[in-house]
Amino acid sequence: MIRHIDTATIELTEFKEKNPKRFQELLEEGIKIGRGEKVKEWGVSKTTVEEIRKKYIPKDPAAAALTNAVIDGDKEEAAKLTQKLLDAGKNPTDVVVGALMPGIQVVCETYDMGEAFVPEILLANDAMVAGVVLCQKKLGNIPSAGKVASLVIEGDVHDIGKNIVAAILRANGFEVIDMGRDVLVEDVVELVKTQKIDLITGTSLMSTTKEGLKSLAESIAFSGVPVACGGAAVDEHFVATFSNAVYGKSPLDAVKIAKAVTSGKKWDEIRKMK
Predict the structure, then answer these.
(1) Cα–Cα dist 69/19, whole Å
(2) Which of 54, 66, 205, 245 has a CA-to-CA distance to 85 between 20 and 30 Å?
């Protein structure tokens, strides 16, 4: 029992250091509960899934059908509906931006709410890519929004988060170099020396490997390429301990960071935006 109490005390202290504001809120809520007062219900989203769908699904019925196919992760249907729009004379870029991308956006935002799961994002991405491929064939290469390298740092082989980030970046028009998992810092250094890279996204699920992100950010600082850091083992307080890096909590944050970088903002400017 004593050992369990000691462990809980350590975890509570770490939580207080990492999330002082939330710690204080929980403390105040505990006091109110003790008094029999009603407290705010946490974890209840103000935005509903239907509101998100309404926000992104296009008004045009044909485009909306394609968006819904992406949301449903129906690869074959997405390809069929994309081809139908192209055959009807629709601009390929408009199909990507106005019908395919909104679908993945819906799934990502519902994922952030806890109303969607990793497999749904991956299926939606496959459906979107099926449509994008057809649009590229029709138009040629769709102009890239920028080039991002995505990786899991050395020592860590958990790549689901990295795959989601890469999928969302591609959905938003970025060219993504997927370096894989258990990636050495020196391999990233070589990459930024030989290719024009706008951003590196690095993830770490294990606390034993997260220091690799710090080493990575510092090792490529010479190039001016920043590192967007994320993953279960990483938080904003950790990333704040080193330079040339920005913390991203969700896959959508990676898109925001990438857009900020390609618009000319430096890593320290982006930190202040968050």
Answers:
(1) 39
(2) 54
The tens digit of pLDDT for each residue in 91-137 reads 887 898 899 989 988 988 888 788 888 788 889 988 988 998 898 88
Would you list the DSSP string of the chain? Answer: -HHHHHHHHHHHHHHHHH-HHHHHHHHHHHHHHHHT-----TT--SS-HHHHHHHHS-SSHHHHHHHHHHHTT-HHHHHHHHHHHHHTT--HHHHIIIIIHHHHHHHHHHHHTTSS-HHHHHHHHHHHHHHHHHHHHHHSSPPPS-EEEEEEETT----HHHHHHHHHHHHTT-EEEEEEEEE-HHHHHHHHHHS--SEEEEE-SSTTTTHHHHHHHHHTGGGT--EEEESTT--HHHHTTSSSEEE-SSHHHHHHHHHHHHTT--HHHHHHH-
How far apart (Å, rounded) are the C-alpha atoms in residues 55 and 67? 12
Closest by CA to 250, choosing from 77, 106, 111, is: 111
Mean pLDDT across the chain, nearest whole number? 85
| Whether 198 contacts 262, CB under 8 Å | yes
Contacts of 199 (CB under 8 A, 6+ apart): 146, 148, 149, 225, 226, 227, 228, 257, 258, 261, 262
Tokens 């969302």: give the residue.
168
Predicted TM-score (pTM) above 0.90: no
Burial class (CB in 10 A: 0-12, 13-18, 19+), 150: buried
